[in-house]
Amino acid sequence: MVNDIKIYFIIISVAISILTPVILIIYCYKRFRISFKVLATGVLIFVVFALILESLLHQFVFKYTDILKYPYVYAIYGACAAAVFEEFGRLIGFKILLKKYREWKDGLSYGLGHGGAEAVIIGGISNINNLVYSYMIKSGSLDALKAKLPAAAVQQIKSSIINTPSYMFLLSGFERLFAFTIQIALSILVFYSIKNGKIRYFVYALLLHFTTDIFAALYQAKVIKSIFVVEAIVFVIALFSLIFVLNSKKISGEAS
């Protein structure tokens, strides 16, 4: 069944996914006076390009191809799709919607919006759902959902929560933290590419995004068996991304 450790780990993941972006946004507003318009644009681009357009492509591909039968092809496709949609979304955001925003803090602000939206929606909201379902399973009230959902769907929810190891819920929170850091770095790379007219930095963003996602995709395709291997690799990428972000103001040519 659902033990207290599992619930505690879900709560921690919710806190990491939601509080980290909120706290960092507040700090950066006070420290750098970041633009909320730029931040909101980051949120908008993530929702439109990652959650809507990319999802529509996945629906088409999974419906009309046998890509799921080929793990390596599936992994490469998934990593490419994420990189292309999100990085070209950033490109459009900075080039069309944010033409007048060319300070370093704007790249940071966009990253906080894009990465924060991903953390809250994918990490926060999904784990809040997991938390609610966990309490319902523990209290024996989950069956009440059968009045609103098909019995098979309710059983699937129950099985998923019960059969998922407790540590996976904790890892999901740290994964969001790593991804949040990487998303900020990616945003600054694309910002720097647009500001200085250096296409290679946009290519770097595409490659970094692909490299980050390919390992998770290979795990989903069951090519990589250990989630800890994937998270260790993503942690290293996030660490280098953090170092880049902390030094990016100098790289952008602005005074500290």
Task: Please give a structural write-up.
- With 256 residues, the protein is mainly α.
- The chain is 83% helix and 0% strand.
- It has eight helices and no strands.
- The chain has helices at 4-32, 36-64, 71-97, 104-139, 151-163, 166-196, 199-220, 227-251.
- Helix 1 (4-32) runs antiparallel to helix 4 and helix 1 runs parallel beside helix 6 (166-196).
Number of strands: 0
Q: What radius of gyration results from the CA coordinates?
A: 19 Å
Q: What's the SSE pattern?
A: HHHHHHHH
- The proportion of residues in beta strands is under 5%
How would you name the oligomeric state of the polypeptide chains in this document?
single chain
- Outline the low-pLDDT stretches: none
The structure class reads mainly alpha
Shape: globular
Mean pLDDT: 94
Tally of helical runs: 8
Q: Termini, distance in Å?
A: 53 Å
Major sheet size, sense and barrel closure:
none
Helix content: over 70%
